[in-house]
Amino acid sequence: MTYTPPPQQRIVLTGLGLTAPNGNAPNEFRAALLDGRSGVQHYSIRYFGETVAGICHFDELRYQKRKEVRRGTRAGSIGIYCAHEAILSAGLSWEDIDKSRIGVYVGITEHGNVETENEIYQIKQFDYDTSVWTHHHNPRTVANNPAGEITLNLGITGPHYTIGAACAAGNAGMIQGAQMLQLGECDIALAGGVSESIHTFGIFAGFASQGALASHPDPTKASRPFDQDRNGIVVAEGGCLYVLERLPDAQKRGATILGELAGWAINSDASDFVLPNAQRQVACMQLALQRAGLEPSEIDLVSTHATATVSGDIQECLALRTVFDNCPNTLINNTKSFIGHAMGAAGALELAGNLPAFQDGVCHATINVDTLDPLCDLPGLILNESREKKSVRTILNNSFGMLGINSVLIVKHV
């Protein structure tokens, strides 16, 4: 017997919760992007010392007790905050929902490094006597932790797991949520990504050893994708989770629809641990466009992944030139210039900053570009000042990660 898959169902975004270095709600985040306000600041971390980072300032105790914050993880707290805010945004009648039909799919870059570093720092004060090792270590460091903490806090009994996809994880979490809805595994998906990366000295030391960590006397100018004088990544924390639903379900309850997940793709470079591959990025964008039933010329706005590394920016620009050749009406921007690289949250957060363009027709700029690198000179690249567009109906969101993982998400206005 030949298996015939069910027809794909349309998946829409109906709620959004976030925390970013320059805003703890969608409207705050959007206002900062349109005003050109960076959220990057000076930062000092154990062993590594002085640097810059994108730091979030959300209220951890809005949805958790102090004991829960101490027991859990920073990534868990970020996820819990974003999940609650997304549910409120979606206008869900939470008490009436079958919690076994809610799925939680959280993209992460890495998890457990923060807690392990902190615990080793503490145990050395006891001459490494493991009898004083915290009994919270295992639940803090298991890979499903951020998603699991969300289910514990909200009483969700449906499926949960994290999606480890390096810096492509924010998109990957949303793609997973959409696919699970299409499969009928859940009726509501909380999906997106979180990052606690600034709390581990190892990530700063690692990027520094690669010559890929940004520095600048003025932290607000440190993240400068496409600029001739860019010198690396600004590490950031953050989170962004969406409520995803099947379109008929959203329409039935009269939900406000933020956009439709029209197409997506994930592929692999299979070429290098860290160096990106423009040809594979091209293939990923083309596959997402094919699945969305769109031509490149029908994309109104491209949200770039560019992290302000020399090779990374150039390779993505090469890929974009290939895909969007002769697309004069397609605009291109970058959000990391405002907040740094929020790792597992990056794709989801960057999309959130652009979604309001569906309503107001304003596409935010890429800031901190004083001298554009000629190899990053793209038609449609928005530099330093926001640009109005008559109509924004489609957004293509790029997110790429280490070990050659690429993710592309296309969202349409409904």
Short summary:
The protein is of the alpha/beta class and 414 residues long.
Write a structural description.
There is one protein chain. With 414 residues, this protein is an alpha/beta fold. Helix content is 33%, strand content 21%. The strands form 3 sheets. A 10-stranded mixed β-sheet has the order 5-4-6-7-1-8-14-13-9-10, sandwiched between helices. A two-stranded antiparallel ribbon has the order 2-3. Strand 2 (40-45) and strand 3 form a beta hairpin. Helix 3 (74-90) crosses helix 6 and helix 10 (278-292) packs across helix 11 (310-323).
Mean pLDDT: 96
What fold name goes in the CATH topology slot of the largest domain? Peroxisomal Thiolase, Chain A, domain 1
* Structural domain count: 2
DSSP E strands, number: 14
Uncertain parts:
1-6
Oligomer: single chain
Question: What labels describe this entry?
Answer:
14 helices; 414 residues; 2 domains; alpha/beta; Peroxisomal Thiolase, Chain A, domain 1; 10-stranded mixed sheet; two-stranded antiparallel sheet
Write the layout of secondary structure elements.
Layout: E1 11-19, H1 26-35, E2 40-45, E3 49-54, H2 66-71, H3 74-90, E4 102-108, H4 113-123, H5 137-141, H6 145-154, E5 160-164, H7 169-183, E6 188-195, H8 201-209, E7 238-246, H9 247-252, E8 259-268, H10 278-292, E9 301-303, H11 310-323, E10 331-333, H12 336-339, H13 346-354, H14 357-360, E11 362-363, E12 387-388, E13 394-401, E14 405-412
Parallel strand pairs: 4-5, 4-6, 9-10, 9-13
Antiparallel strand pairs: 1-7, 1-8, 2-3, 6-7, 8-14, 11-12, 13-14
Helix pairs in contact: 3-6, 7-13, 10-11
